[in-house]
Each structure stands twice: as structure tokens, then as C-alpha cells.
Amino acid sequence: MSSSPQTTARTVAVVLAGGTGSRVGLPLPKQLVKIAGKPVIEHTLAVFEDSPDIDDIVVYMHPDYLGEVQAIVSRAGFTKVRGIHAGGGTRSDTTRRAITALTASARPGEDPNVLFHDAVRPLVSRRIICDCVRALSRHRAVDVAIPSADTVITTHTRAEEGEFIASVPQRAALRRGQTPQGFKLSTIRQAYEKAARDPQFEATDDCSVVLRYLPHTPVHVVRGEEHNMKITHPVDIFIAEKLFQLATHRIPGHDGDDACHSRLRDKVVVIFGASYGIGADVAALAEQHGARVFKYSRTTTGTYVENPRDVQAALADAHTSAGRIDYVVNTAGLLRIGKLTDTSPDDIAHATAVNYLAPIHIARAAHPYLRQTRGQLLFYTSSSYTRGRAHYGLYSSTKAATVNLTQSLADEWADDHIRVNCINPERTRTPMRLNAFGDEPEDSLLTSHTVATTSIDALLSPLTGQVIDVRRQDPLHTTHPRTPAPASASASASATADSTASLRRAARTDPLPRRKRLARHEATGESAGRGAGVLMFPTPPPDAA
Length: 545
Fold this sequence. Notes:
39% of the residues lie in helices and 18% in strands. The relative contact order is 0.10.
């Protein structure tokens, strides 16, 4: 039977970052590789820094890269990091070093909680951390695991004949281990003291040490998450990048309207493309929360975003009036439908100028103002950026370029403390979409207010270099027939609508031939009528907000 440690015990997160990245095939450790605009270890440390259940953080890094981690901690302003130390030659050696240091620093009679976590699991959630700490109030050892979706086999080798199946364990009882692994300090110390007397000792994780050398100490299992993956192989970097994109719509909340109001009060927001739709809603929400908003568009102020002088003049006007600029938001865009070979050179130049050169002009002009305030630049893209489609390759390619620009600038401007992000909503109900598609089922579309709310959350978040998907259904927490969806998923999204069925229903009232309807549907993808683009039939204004 496990004892009941005090619930007020201090909790220390030990972040293990001693690997060299040899399996990833990179010239630097994988924990220093940048994903979503930041080094992997920075993402990991940020989760523990932001967790109210963590009191202190200690990092054990490969000795050749201690300076790099110190620079990351200093730049990010992590206040819970108490030390950055050289790791050992193996995982177990590093754990021993941590146990020795924590024992020496513990107060008399103190038995703190210790969470050992792989630095290369940057997608660990606050829920997992919270569950581990709570479990340590009832148990002395805790692991994190998820069910195995694959059949696991054991094998044996017959000389030169190769490998053969020895057994097939029942999958229902199998779990895939993750981190953090949590312990009372006295428990993991006792386990390693006994292991030190075993000349055959070897281990790749710490729970197995407790299981082997303290067999009467139960190891409780906390439910993990599929996306709490470990970056080990080259492909994992690309998977983690996409998981960050999918996860970022769950932006850290601002704890209600009052907190939002306090954080936006007297801030200065400049919005390009603010005449209607998402841009107008972002402006209204920002003003509602006390921000001073400057709205520019072709139709209201005669501001053409493709003209660098107009952009410079707008920003100078806002700065002269307000004395500062904290946020710059660009929702202007232009979408032309048709074959590239049928598009005139003038139309190509115009679309490229609005959709791609304008963000560049805005970024260049906004940089000195945002550097002064350590502010944020916010762009909008289209779901079509992931794969070009027929009849609007010009549009989708410029939106892919906008995503690349976002990630590049986030990296380039990190030392200036300027954050750069990009909003990527699904199909959204706006006046432009209503004019283009007619009335559609409300449950198949986002509202522009929803997208604007996420945009405000993005401005208030510490995120940078991320594509923030705004979805009706969280792709990481889609309900499985056997697995209930977490409560957070139902709070953030409604059920996903069948867009093909919506198109068929619209066909009953749409006078366009089916081919043109499909082209128009594809051309807007999941973004028609929203801030990232305007349907062009044939030449509407470039303000799509």
C-alpha cells in the first residue's frame, strides 16, 4: 500500500537534455533544434514555467551546450530555472547527479516531488503535469503512459536465419511510456542507492529502477497524450512542427474578459483591412477591451497595402497620435479564381502585390515600432497554403509564402523580442462569404467573431512563429468511438460539418454550373470570405477583413 505524502510538498521539474542528436542527423543536439520559431527545449521549459504546479526547474544539458541553454533561459525570462548543469554519460548517470544535488539542497525534513522529463518532449501538457503532481500526493512513484495502438511482439534470433516472433503479448495490457516520471525524492534516491550495488544495473528510464529495486512500491500510471511525442528521428521534427500548428489554436487563455481588458487597456493596435468581417471584429474587440485602435483600409482611409508609402504613412500616423504601437494586424488579401494561363500579367502583379508584397511592406515598416514595445505582428493565411489547388494557385502560393514569412521573421526578430504569428481559420461566415455562397448552415461555418476572439488571444499570448489554426473541431482531441473527448475539446469546438454535403445543399440554390461551384468552393478552401482573402468576381477591393 502506498503512503500519503503531504500535498503541499515542493515540486521540482528536472529537464533531461543530455542527448547529442546523433539519431536526428543534425550538427547540434535535437533539443536545440528550432520548431515553431523556438528551440525545442525552450518550448519544454515554457510549459513547466507556466505550470502552477511546478516550483523549481533544473536543467541537465550536454556539457558542450550549457551556454546555449543559459542564453535561452535568459532571453525567455524563465524565473523558475534554478540551475543548468552538465549531464552524465547516460540517462541513469544524469538522474544520479540530479538526486545528489536535490538531496543537498533540500531543507531539513523535506521530501519534495521530483518530475523527470525529456527535454525533447516539448508538447507535454499542463494537464499531464498537474495529474502527476496530484498523483504524488497519494503515491510515491508515477509514470505517464498511453495505450498501444500497434501490436507489440517479442522476438528471438536464430543464428544467420534472422529474427522470428517469440510471443505476441495481449495489447490490452500494453502501454507506451512517456514522461514526466514523478517520484518522492526519498523514493527515487533509495532505488538508485540499491541499484548502485548491482554490477549488472542498466536502465533507460527511472520507473524501471523503482520497479526493479523497490518491488513493494507501486508505480501509479497517469494518462498520457498521443501528441506528447519524443523527438528522436528526423521525421519527428516535421511531425512535431505540424502538431504545434494543430495545437496552437488552444492558445493560453487570459482568464476572462477582466484580465483581457487589463492587458489590452491603453495598448495601441493598428489594423490593415479593417473595414468589415474579421478585421472589423478584431478592431471592435480590441476597443471593447480598452485598446486604442487605428483602422486602415482601401475603402475607409484610402490605404492601399500594396503601396509601401501608404503603409508607412498609416503607421507613422498611428505612432504620432498614440506615441507607440504594440500590435500590427494585417487582414487584407485578394483572391482571383481562374487558370493561371488565363490571368493577365496585370492581375498577377496586383494579386502578388496585395497577398505577398504587402505583408513584407507592413513587416518592414512595423519593425522599428514593434521593437520599441516588444510587440507582435499578426498575419492571416488560408488552409490552401498546405496544398495548392487548381484555379487559384496564385492565391494559395502567396499564402504559403506568408506562412514561411511568419516563421522566418519570428526567428529573425527573436532578439528584438518581436513576436510574429499567423491565423489560419476554417471557413468563416462573413458578409463576403454570404455574398459569394448565399445562406449556408450556420453550424458548418465559424463566425468572424470567433476568429477575431482567437486573434485577440494570439496577440496576448507569448507564442511566436506559429500558424494558429482556428477550427470547429480540435484535431488532436477528436472523439474516438471508445474514448471520450476531453472536456476542453467540447468547450473549444463543435462537431465538424461535412463540407461536401454543405456544397451539395448549396447547389440547389446556386445558379452557377457545378464545375464553377466546385472551383469557387475549392478556391476559398476553409478561408473564403475571411480576413485572409477576398473572392474576386472579377475585381473587388483588396480589403477582406
